[in-house]
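FORM 12-B: Structure-to-Sequence Request
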């Protein structure tokens, strides 16, 4: 009877179009995996986004300038690329779950070291360490989740996984608001980064509750050793090139916009740190809904359709937000659609990258392509900061965001093959 009940549950799930059906179709172990992956990505996003929120304070506290701090953000993202490449390869060799624990420990230690930094050099080193763990966790958690969810629901599962980053960003803003409300500015930023060390506690939950996906276990038994360079062989090279170009555009647009929006609100819109909180919450709310909706739409209409629609809409939204003559009330309202369109393609991106590779090199393939985007797109915060020295910050943000979204649109239109519903066990 148990087998019949399980078969009936899966059959019903396969036929459902509900945005939540991916979760109903999971067994208890799959659900624990989902919560571990999404919680890890939530706290990962919280740790990373604490830094952009503190840029204005750090200029004074560290005796530096916006260009230097933008460079630290770019270095963090570049290190996250290296971390993603290494963690993806390790997940194919030593397991997804073990690698995920290592990456969470690294970004937690990086945040703690940031809180203790006494100068720009120490802060740079701390953020580099955080970046290695940040990039590794993102790639490995997404691969792990993709291997425990039904094929027809992968976009929706990735949508909710990606939406947890918006939750992490929201937590970062709440932490900023609380610390800056009760502590002097020169102490508040240190306490913020210190709180970012708490995700290390996640390791204990993962060790007790999350098991290695059976797809990965079976693949390692069949082929115990695999070369990282297989993602560049004849069968995988096209996926690696197209996936890398797609993520360069996706990551570049995100980092150019999200890193500098808080500073844009303060310098050009003259909105204080605490007063900017509602604007950022509106933006984050749009991101959350965009992630979830993008995943559902990618299961319904395909990955390519989502890339084309959201990249075009994001380009228009960024330009309006940074250049239109808007009142503060209109800026607040526009924050929601800006966030919605700016990230809606991410859910399709993570599903698509996982569907491009066979199981034995999926970790290495997703880790490389997703973080190739970070390696190049991660330079955009630095370029925005550098360009802002000769023009307005709003112009610098829009230039690099539009370049990025344009690349996503062209790659999806001209080179991407539809992968919706691909069976990862094949």
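FORM 12-B RESPONSE
SEQUENCE OUT:
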């Amino acid at each position: 009877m148990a087998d019949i009940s399980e078969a009936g549950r899966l059959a019903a799930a396969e036929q459902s179009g509900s945005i939540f059906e991916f979760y109903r179709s999971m067994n208890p172990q799959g659900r624990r995996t989902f919560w571990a992956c999404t919680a890890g990505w939530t706290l990962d996003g919280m740790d990373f986004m604490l830094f952009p929120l503190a840029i204005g304070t750090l200029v004074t506290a560290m005796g530096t300038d916006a260009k230097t701090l933008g460079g630290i953000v770019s270095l963090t993202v570049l290190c996250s690329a290296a971390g993603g490449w290494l963690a993806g390869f390790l997940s194919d060799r030593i397991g997804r779950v073990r690698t995920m624990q290592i990456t969470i420990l690294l970004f937690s230690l990086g945040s703690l070291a940031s809180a203790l930094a006494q100068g720009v050099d120490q802060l740079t080193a701390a953020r580099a360490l955080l970046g290695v763990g940040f990039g590794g966790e993102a790639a490995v958690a997404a691969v792990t989740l993709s291997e425990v969810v039904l094929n027809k629901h992968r976009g929706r599962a990735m949508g909710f996984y990606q939406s947890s980053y918006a939750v992490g960003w929201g937590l970062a803003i709440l932490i900023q608001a609380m610390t800056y409300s009760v502590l002097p500015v020169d102490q508040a930023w240190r306490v913020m980064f210190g709180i970012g060390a708490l995700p290390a506690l996640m390791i204990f939950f993962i060790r007790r509750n999350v098991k290695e996906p059976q797809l990965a276990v079976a693949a390692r038994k069949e082929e115990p050793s695999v070369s990282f360079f297989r993602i560049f062989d004849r069968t995988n090279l096209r996926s690696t090139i197209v996936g890398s170009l797609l993520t360069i555009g996706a990551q570049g647009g995100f980092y150019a916009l999200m890193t500098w929006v808080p500073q844009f609100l303060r310098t050009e819109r003259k909105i204080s740190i605490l007063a900017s909180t509602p604007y950022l919450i509106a933006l984050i709310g749009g991101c959350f809904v965009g992630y979830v909706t993008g995943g559902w739409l990618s299961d319904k209409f395909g990955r390519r359709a989502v890339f084309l629609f959201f990249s075009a809409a994001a380009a228009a939204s960024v330009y309006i937000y940074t250049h239109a003559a808007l009142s503060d009330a209109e800026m607040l309202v526009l924050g929601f659609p800006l966030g919605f369109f700016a990230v809606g393609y991410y859910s399709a991106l993570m599903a698509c990258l996982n569907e491009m590779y066979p199981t034995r090199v999926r970790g290495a393939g997703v880790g490389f392509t997703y973080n190739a985007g970070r390696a190049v797109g991660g330079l955009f915060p630095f370029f925005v900061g550098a360009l802002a020295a000769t023009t307005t910050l709003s112009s610098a943000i829009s230039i690099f965001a539009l370049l990025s979204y344009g690349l996503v649109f062209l790659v999806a239109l001209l080179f991407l093959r539809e992968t919706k519903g691909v069976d990862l066990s094949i």
